[in-house]
């Protein structure tokens, strides 16, 4: 792990993993709080490292101190659930020595207990392979060989962080005249979007797509992010075109269909909205997919939106059925319970219909 001023979350993270791993290595990049005191409750392998605006340098330093056959990395605001602790412990016992790297799910957002946004990250690597981290910010492990995709998940549970840190690193990189790789362009655009610099973000997303060196999933993500920028700038038609542009890279994704459907719903074009939300329910992820997954768009969200659409058309039975389809994923979520109650009352004539 690499850490800095993580006293709010570090104990929670280490508690969730300490009895599964064989050693804990923590590289501190300049904490001024109780981070090191908390870390030393779990390990003596706590090292200081001068921060040089380069996440890869810090992560590579942490890997240099590892001594076990395999290296697992976490961030301080990550947590391993009880279910996945069991999976990880069992996985560790049965891990074949011919595996070079292991990916795990990374759950980034939730609706109740259900993950809504996830991605796959390389989390475990064979130390003898000497894999290294690349990139100053939004760093990644450069790997090859026998890669195993596991069903183990790590949960991201942030409390607080320096929201401008990554943007500052990119701005410094620009000021120094350093070249931006296509990956840098994409993640810099993401930072600009997060900081509401929409026009500038649009320019960098377009520069990224124009390189022609885009991994398919990154290109599709860039299209969706472009759509967010245009929506924030009150340019709905441009937003729709950005989503449609994603179809050039692969078959339509459920998220794309939901985005287009929402645009039509806002315009009051219910039939068109129904078409796109219905299509979202039929979209399937490509085999061996490793990009960001919007679980909501692939499961309950289009059904909830179809519930809204059909209720606006006065087709309450169809609306009710789609609410129940959403309930298959969300259970007794308050939204589901409310919709069910109102729709039943409308169908039974107990409540005046809108």
UniProtKB/TrEMBL annotation:
Superkingdom of origin organism: Bacteria
Domain Glycosyltransferase 2-like: 1-98
InterPro entries associated with the record: Glyco_trans_2-like, Nucleotide-diphossugar_trans, TPR-like_helical_dom_sf
Signal peptide as annotated in the record: none
Annotated Pfam families: Glycos_transf_2 (PF00535)
Stored SUPFAM superfamilies: Nucleotide-diphospho-sugar transferases, TPR-like
CDD domains referenced in this protein's UniProt entry, alphabetically: Beta4Glucosyltransferase
Name recorded for this polypeptide: Glycosyltransferase 2-like domain-containing protein
Species classification: Bacteria, Bacillati, Bacillota, Bacilli, Bacillales
